[in-house]
């Protein structure tokens, strides 16, 4: 049985975008393949690793778990939105503190961290660890990532 594709319209990183998507398509695939925004990564594909983190209508979600059609009419932000002419303060802090090693988790960490900062959800180290609990990193032991998040929060290098 073939299912008819659906015209998906949404705002992606401040621009109106559209794509013809299969009703079962995942937001992750539409972001990467239809919109060419490959900064969003696929790790587990099961909602466990956070590599595919994006901000959908102000909420942090795992794009591997969200049906693309659920984003109809929504506002989506991906990691590509974080840097303008300059890196964002959190990106600068990741560089400064060595928060990226292999780099695979980094886009998701940056998106999740940005969401934490924007929602003022982090007060201290424990809060930073808890806030990033949905994002797995095999390399850093989290210390450098947490340091970077706290530095960005406090507006210091
Ligand atoms: S790829 Fe989505 S949570 Fe792992
Ligand atoms: S830097 Fe390698 S998984 Fe986080």
In short:
This protein is α+β, with helices and mostly antiparallel strands. The protein is built from 5 helices and 5 strands, in the order ββαβββαααα.
Task: Tell me the layout of helices and strands.
Layout: E1 6-12, E2 15-21, H1 27-34, E3 53-56, E4 59-62, E5 75-77, H2 89-97, H3 106-118, H4 125-131, H5 143-154
Parallel strand pairs: 1-5
Antiparallel strand pairs: 1-2, 3-4, 3-5
Bound molecules: FE2/S2 (inorganic) cluster (2 copies).
Write the CATH architecture name of the largest domain: Roll
The first-to-last residue Cα distance is 56 Å
**Strand line-up in the sheet with most strands:** 2-1-5-3-4
User: Which ranges are low-confidence, i.e. pLDDT below 50, for 5 or more consecutive residues?
Assistant: none
Class from helix and strand fractions = alpha+beta
The radius of gyration is: 16 Å
Write out the distinct hetero groups bound to the structure.
FE2/S2 (inorganic) cluster
CATH superfamily of the largest domain: Beta-grasp domain
Total number of domains: 2
CATH class of the largest domain: Alpha Beta
Number of strands: 5
